[in-house]
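Action item from last meeting closed. Structure (97 res):
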């Protein structure tokens, strides 16, 4: 959902080594699937502006659909893997893992 909402900001194919930046965020949702809060779990040493870029990408994908019928907490973590062009793949979608 996040990648689909941000096609201009993503890349496909193998991951480069090394990656330019790896921010990790926790997204907390309201019962209706809207974003309640985004907490930064890991600020990358290089290219720290990618944290804000990741937050924007998450916001662009919202709302995530109703979650009120699911057990709490209504949250998920996402790891953004940025290449040198500062385009991302999501860790949860990387092929071959």
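Sequence:
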């Amino acid at each position: 959902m996040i990648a689909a909402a941000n096609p201009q900001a993503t890349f496909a194919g193998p991951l480069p080594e090394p990656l330019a930046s790896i921010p990790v965020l926790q997204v907390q949702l309201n019962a209706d699937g809207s974003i309640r809060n985004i907490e930064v779990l890991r600020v990358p040493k290089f290219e720290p502006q990618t944290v804000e870029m990741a937050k924007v990408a998450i916001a662009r994908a919202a709302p995530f659909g109703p979650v009120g019928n699911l057990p709490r907490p209504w949250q998920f973590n996402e790891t953004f893997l940025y290449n040198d062009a500062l385009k991302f793949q999501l860790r949860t979608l990387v092929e071959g893992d």
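Note appended to the action item: The chain has one domain: 22-91.
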